[in-house]
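Components:
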Amino acid sequence: MRTALPRRALLATALAVPAIRPSFAQAQTFKVGTILSVTGPAAFLGEDMRVGVELAVEEINAAGGIGGRRIEWFFYDGESQTQRALNATRRLLSQDRVDVLVGGGSMSGIALAMAPMAEQARVPFISTEGAMSIVTPVAERRFVFKSTVDDDQVLERLADWCHANSRTRVAMLADSSGFGQSAVEQMRLVAARRNLQVAYESFNPADTDLTAQLTRIRGGDSQVVLCWTTAPVGVVFLRQARQLGLGDRQLVHSYGFVAQRFMELAGEAAQGLLLLSVKFPIGDQLPETDPTRNAILGLTERFTAKYRRAPNQFVGQTYDAMMLASIGLQRGGADRNAVRDAIEGIRGHRGVSGVFSFSAERHSGLSKDDVVMLDWRAGRFNLVT
Amino acid sequence: MPPMDAAALLQVLFGGLGTGAIYGLVGLGFSLIYRATGAVNFAQGEWVMLAGMATAAGHMAGFATGLAGAASLLLVVAVGVASYLLAVQRLRDASPLLITMVSIGIAIFTKGAIMVTLGKNPTGYPGPLGDAVLRIAGAAIPAQSLIVLAACAGFIFALQVFFARSRTGLALRAAAADRDAAALVGVPVQRMVMLSFGLAAAAGAVAGLVITPLTLIDYNQGTMLGFKGFSAAMLGGMGHPLGAVAGGLLLGTLEGLAGYAISSRFKEAVAFLLLLAVLFLRPSGLFGKRKAERV
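Structure:
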């Protein structure tokens, strides 16, 4: 018997294995395809998001898979470039022949471009990106779902706060990405519905200076300044807003900016800021009766044990997406139409980002009840009630 | 149209000048290497980013920020010189086009290497004056913006003195003006090109050091900074260091004013339209001399 294979033979075997595997393993596994951007401008989100799917896949497989069938996970880097991500999507759909797609490239723009492809291939796609237009109109997005909260629900939550605090004039400073501009569209609708007067400003996510925009806002009479971005320039927004004397207005960041390291980088400038967020960052501050509390605490504990750092909501939103996919696969089996129907039929699933209920009219599972207001004090996020 | 009061205009003007000084410093690096080789160095923006990332890493590791900054400056200069020695000097037929292509390779390599070693998260460190703000005639000027302007002015001044007064500076100008003639009278042309890479890297590093406390930095930001610096150098006249700085200040100010007076959506479009207009009227840039070429 040979004790050691020559290196070249080993390499050949290693290369050959993935090619052979599908032919005999097809019946025993579910194939899940994921595209997230772990390089390029969205990389700082993509890494956490990738780990969220990874952890969910590991947990499902460790528990014996879905109905006895293990998950075979295909991951590709979207590189924060729509074209690259679409090539990878094509590969997942036609070559790897995945049963379900989880994760849409870490950027709304990418997920928006992936949605019609999934639709055409009739493969259920659970997006982990923000923009609402990823799943609307539902008639054109029958196979597309989303594990993040909708912009209109978040903005409704903000409108509630404005009315409770007698503020009606808002300046919205949104970046020019799909994430920012999709929110602007929704704001126009929500503002009309809820009697808010909104002035709009825009900036490029790669900008380093917001003096011009903030000076315009200072010249206006807004009471609330809402910034909508996931880019680091959101820290510049906080600093320059204080420097230019906008500190007397209520500064608000969207759920895209709820990240501890941004708050730490902003330092003093983050004092008094409010953030619209899912409940994930403050799971331990929720009342015992809250339906998401235990899910959040459980994931936090398992994640911290494995990765030696605290998870954030970006981990949570991809973890949720994978769990939703697994429910769909469990109920729908190998039939993609049945999987789609099963996901659409999910009601009251207690995820870590909130309680998911889908329907034939709504392919976003979360609602306004899953959105809370946070502030940043004493080096942590705190629930504002 | 927003109100055009003096305080707001001054505010926007200062913001634009601060941004423009950075564009200028980056553009300066483009000009230095263009003068020495005729090539456009696309790695320039990555050197800016490297300086900021390395200093932030030093700061996080507990070193004094000044010390980390000085070490990063040396590191970036070393990277600039090494890029020349390892990639550019080895080219058999070092045509400007080829050097430009190689610089794209150096840029991609630098970016990837930093992503892997220093990570993908945005990072930063406080400037020497912290978050101090100066109030001038109703406008609020962050102290760090003044440091940026001072660094830009200091660098260009030192460079002009070096070119005008020192033997090496004279030799560098000679090598840039006419390689063959300079070589004939004994100027070590290769070493002068290497020096240009070192100086360009230093300009990039200084830009990175002073801008990071204001804007934060991540591994991906070099590309955009490089693009803006390149525009500044084109506007001022490629190969003209002082022109690059003037071009940068002009570009930054125009962006700011366009963003304020017209709309923040068209901030960059307006600035680049003006850049195009200038280049149509004066193809060699604001400071560039018209060159007659025999066809």
